[in-house]
Amino acid sequence: MIDPDYALFARVVAGGSIAAAARASNLSPAMASRRLQRLEARLGVRLVQRTTRQLALTPAGERFHADVVAILAAVEAAEARLTGTAAVPAGVLRVSAPTSFGRLHVAPQLHRFLAAYRQVSLTLDLSDAFVDLIADGVDVGVRIAAAVPPGLEAHRLGDSRRVLCASPAYLARAGAPERIGDLAAHRLLAAAGQMPWRLVAGARRTSIDRASHVRTNSSELVRELALSGVGIALRSLWDVGEALRDGALVRVLPEWEGTRDVAIWAVHPRAPIVAPAVRAFVAFLREVVDPAAWE
Prior knowledge:
The chain has ten helices and 14 strands. By secondary structure, it is an alpha+beta fold. The chain folds into three domains: 4-83, Arc Repressor Mutant, subunit A (Orthogonal Bundle); 91-158 and 262-293, D-Maltodextrin-Binding Protein, domain 2 (3-Layer(aba) Sandwich), CATH 3.40.190; 162-258, D-Maltodextrin-Binding Protein, domain 2, CATH 3.40.190.290. It has a five-stranded mixed sheet with strand order 4-3-5-14-6, with helices on one face. The chain has a four-stranded mixed sheet with strand order 8-11-7-12. A three-stranded antiparallel sheet has the order 10-9-13, with no helix packed on it. Helix 1 crosses helix 2, helix 1 packs across helix 4 (59-83) and helix 2 (18-25) packs across helix 3. 28% of the residues are buried. The mean pLDDT is 89.
C-alpha cells in the first residue's frame, strides 16, 4: 500500500506550500504540517526547508520527490491499464516561460491547447527570473539557454539566433558602427544577466562586457528601448524578427551574431513516467514554436 503521506508530500511540492497541499488533501494546514513532519521523522531526513516566505526542497527532498512522483505515476498508470481507461491529460498543470517569448509565441496559441484538453487546469507564469522547476512546483518550463541541468528532461524546440540591432533614428544620430571595436563608443542595452555578449563572425569570436545604458530586469523593456532609439541591443530573432522586417529596427554589424549554442527548450523534471498533461503541453509547444517563421 502506498503511504498517503507520499501523495501529501508531492502536493506540497506541486502547490509550493503546505497550505495549498492541505486544501488539495482536504486537511487543515496544521494537520498537513504534522504529517509532513511525521514523514521526515520516519525517513530520518529533512525533505523541505521551511522559511517564512517559501518552501524549498533539500537535496534529499529533491531525490525523494523524483522517486515519489515516479511511484505515484506508476500506480496511476497501473490502475488505468487494469480498468482499461486511457491516460487522459487532466488535472493541474503549471507552466513557466520567459516573459517576451511567452507573450509573443505561447499566449496567442494557448486557446488551442485549452480547447483540446478541457480537463487540464492551467497556470501560466511569465517571468524573466530563473525558475527552479522543482522548488517552485512547475510542471513544464520554457528555457532559452545553452544547456539544461541534468535533472531535467529537455526537448529542443529550435535555435535562438541573436543579432545586433538598433533603430534607424539611433543610427542616424550616433552613426552606424563599422567594426566590432566601434561598439565601445555606443550605448548598449541589455537586461540583467544578459551581459557579456558572446559574439561570432565566422571563425572570429569576441566578448562584449559593458554596463547597459539603462539597467533593467526586463527583456521587453530592452526591446522597447531599442525601438525608441536609445541604443544597440543583442536580441533574438523570435523577439525582433517582425521589427526587422518592417524597418523599425535594422541589423548592426550584420556579420556578427550571438553564439549559436543558445536554444529554445521545453523542460520538465526527469521521471520514469511523465504525466499525460505534461506530455500534451510539450507536444503543443513543438507544434506552435516554429523558428523558421522568424528566421
